[in-house]
Amino acid sequence: MYRILIVDDEEILRMLISDTLEDLADVQIEAAEDGIQALAMLEKQEYDLMILDYMMPEVTGLELLNRLSPQMKARMKIIMLTAKAQETDRMKAMGAGASYYIPKPFSPLKLLELVEEILYGEPSKQE
User: Domain residues of the chain, as ranges?
Assistant: First the structure.
């Protein structure tokens, strides 16, 4: 069973991402509405993948990444999903431990394909 944590302060985006991934095999999806809630969840449970918003109140996605242990970053893939499309922002996120960087607006199908590749090794062929 793969565990995915979605962290975004916008409920509509959490629902869109969750709905996009809900039909994946052997996947459990959980969501956090901010970085503080995500940190609490990460202390209690291991996840295979985290889809993380960059800009959130109180604890940003970048700050959350900086608080994670190197061991946690090594065992979990992290997709930074953000409206911050500057190269310097991408470099900061990747330097802090993000595995992938996807600017918003994003294609749900492209996100699904990336998640399938991360979890299963290759995207399924959608007809």
Answer: 2-115
Give the whole-angstrom CA distance, residue 55 versus residue 48: 22
CATH label, 2-115, candidates 3.40.50.2300, 1.20.1250.20, 3.30.70.660, 3.40.50.300: 3.40.50.2300
Peptide bond into 70 cis (omega under 30): no
pLDDT digits (tens, 9 = 90+) for 2-28: 999 999 999 999 999 999 999 999 999
73 token code pair? 């970053």
Residue range 38-82, pLDDT digits in tens: 999 999 999 999 999 999 999 999 999 999 999 999 999 999 998
E strand intervals along 8-90: 27-32, 49-53, 77-82
pTM: 0.93
Residue 107 main-chain phi, psi, to 5 deg:
-90, 120
| Dist CA 28 CA 13 (whole Å) | 17
* Distance (Å) of CA 64 to CA 26, 37, 68, 69, 121: 27, 10, 7, 10, 27
